[in-house]
Design goal:
InterPro entries: Big_10 (IPR041280), LD-transpeptidase (IPR050979), LD_TPept_cat_dom (IPR005490), Transpep_catalytic_dom (IPR038063)
Helix content: 10-25%
Number of strands: 27
Pathway: Cell wall biogenesis; peptidoglycan biosynthesis
Protein name: Transpeptidase
Organism: Amycolatopsis oliviviridis
Number of helices: 4
Keywords: Acyltransferase, Cell shape, Cell wall biogenesis/degradation, Peptidoglycan synthesis, Signal, Transferase
Strand order of the largest sheet: 21-20-19-27-22
Length: 402
């Protein structure tokens, strides 16, 4: 069948009409744009416009009316659907507690410590997105502790330590609320250093160590904000502790009880190889234990006493302690004949007095002392054993480990 010219024109017009109808039908659910165009600020007909105005909603930490609040916990007010115009927290004497609003005026937090066993009162005003004011109010009371305890730290401002130095915080008794204490601790390092806290030594002490030995030259800032923090049942922290220190050069001592040698490796280079006598192998109570120890202190002279082995006040020169169990690297002239040949000491590492002084003069607290070859290992229950744990073991000892 063939179309005439006029028929073709009528068919084309009808087809165009069908396309137009189909196009409008396909887009009929979409919003239309105002006549002013998409750049004029006009809204699409399907939009809802600005969110409806609402009154300010306040949240208090701790909740209004709370009692036995730990002063070390966050103390703050936050607002939703509005801003904070003025916030005042007043102590029982009518004095305002120092605080700081956030930049967006959505929250306000205290910047000074609260007291124990005191009532605090909120006041002030917030404004909602509806433009109406909402009063800030309410009160809470802090806990009156059964006991306050301090804690000792092993690092001090301005000091330089070795590459194995852990940070330790030690309490006078067991800590039962480990998570609260650990949340109050922080370690800031330059360069950034991966590390973790771990609870050791009968739950009285928490230690932080890096995943691997410190990078030489690292700067460290440690803060223990434990004032007002719950330590145990009715027991709270007495005061904060802090320290800033530096990690020095790399030095690793390597001792082998079978070769009877003590090597000193500094910045990757061996600088000394001393003949040594270690603890007597035949007596488990005298063996120098294998494992990675840490230098704890240095003494020009030290008086040695061990009632079990019947000696008292034996003074030795140039003593470097590397164990809480009483092992030292020190000078001892009477054992020079055995040094480099056999083990006869009561657990210490005996060197010739001149060698012991040379070693001590270059040692830093925190240097690792790696002993191998003996029949006994470091006793984790009583010794400075941080580096006897691999990283997976160590990180699991954190109270915050998932």
């Amino acid at each position: 069948m063939r179309f005439t010219e006029s028929a073709r024109r009528r068919a084309a017009i009808a087809a165009l009409g069908l396309v137009a109808v189909l196009t409008l039908g396909a887009c009929s659910s979409e919003p239309t744009v105002s006549a002013s165009g998409p750049d004029s600020g006009g809204q699409m007909s399907g939009e809802t416009g600005d969110k409806a105005a609402a009154p300010a909603k306040l949240t208090y930490e701790p909740a209004a009316g709370a009692q036995d609040v730990a002063p070390g916990q966050p103390i703050k007010v936050t607002v939703a659907d509005g801003t904070l115009d003025q916030v005042v927290l007043t102590n029982p004497d009518g004095k305002q507690v120092a605080g700081q609003p956030s930049e967006d005026k959505k929250s306000w937090s205290t910047t000074e410590q609260l007291g124990y066993g005191k009532a605090y009162t909120w006041s002030g005003k917030a404004t909602g997105t509806d433009g109406k004011p909402v009063q800030i109010g309410g009160a809470f009371t802090t806990v009156k502790p059964r006991k306050q305890v301090g804690a000792n730290i092993n690092v001090f401002d301005g000091q330089t330590y070795g590459i194995a130095m852990p940070i330790t915080l030690t309490f006078p008794s067991k800590v039962t609320d480990k998570a609260s204490v650990e949340k109050a601790l922080s370690v800031e390092t330059t360069p950034k250093t991966e590390g973790s806290w771990a609870w050791v030594h009968d739950d009285t002490s928490v230690h932080w160590r890096p995943k691997a030995y410190w990078q030489p030259g690292t700067t460290v800032k440690f803060n223990a904000k434990i004032y007002g923090v719950k330590v145990g049942d009715g027991v709270y922290g007495k005061e904060d502790r802090s320290a800033s220190f530096t990690i020095g050069r790399s030095q690793i001592v390597k001792g082998n009880t079978q070769t009877h040698r003590l090597l000193v490796i500094r910045d990757g280079q061996q600088i000394a190889d001393y003949p040594a006598s270690y603890g007597l192998d035949a007596d488990p109570g005298r063996v120098t234990p294998s494992g990675t120890h840490v230098v704890m202190s240095k003494h020009d002279t030290y008086s040695m006493t061990n009632e079990r082995y019947n000696y008292e006040n034996i003074v030795v020169p140039s003593a470097v302690r590397f164990s809480t169990n009483g092992e030292f690297i020190h000078g001892y002239g009477p054992s020079i004949w055995a040094q480099g040949k056999k083990n006869i000491s009561h657990g210490c590492v005996n060197l010739a007095p001149a060698n012991a002084k040379a070693y001590m003069d270059g040692a830093l607290v925190g240097d690792p002392v790696e002993i191998e070859g003996s029949t006994q290992k470091i006793n984790r229950a009583r010794d400075y054993s941080d580096w006897t744990y691999d990283w997976a073991e160590w990180s699991k000892l954190s109270a915050l480990a998932s």
